[in-house]
Amino acid sequence: MNVGDALPPLEIPVTRTLIVAGAIASRDYQDVHHDAELAREKGSPDIFMNILTTNGLVGRYITDHLGPHAVLRKVAIRLGAPNYPGDTMTLTGTVTALDGDTAEIRVTGANRLGHHVTGIVTVTLGAGA
Fold first, then answer.
1. In a 3-state reduction of DSSP, which class is residue 78?
2. How far apart (Å, rounded) are the C-alpha atoms in residues 100 and 86?
3. How many Å apart are CA 32 and CA 45, to the nearest integer?
4. CA–CA gap between residue 62 and residue 105 (Å, rounded)
5. Which of 31, 39, 52, 82 could cross-link 48 (Cys pair, CB 3.0–4.6 Å)?
6. What pTM, to 2 d.p., does this model score?
């Protein structure tokens, strides 16, 4: 692994089930994550993914690529465009820094509306990374 290396992209279909299951799993019971009618009443065209689900997907993206021995040390993300049912979020990453067995990776997750998530993940590399 070298600074400037790109991780392969990962396409994640954003389904209604993924949004609702992610919200329930993270104990986020806000109606905008599971009730389309109430989400529309609040000005959204549909339910949308919560930040905790996005955070988990970013972590999965990194550990899927670096392997089971990689340890996430810091995930600093910012949300942008919402992820709605029917979207596809494509995660991409670039290694921005290396210090011994620790790497920083800039991650972007984009959908049809633009960048859903941007941020930096700090990870300790395991064997084989």
1. strand
2. 41
3. 10
4. 8
5. 82
6. 0.90
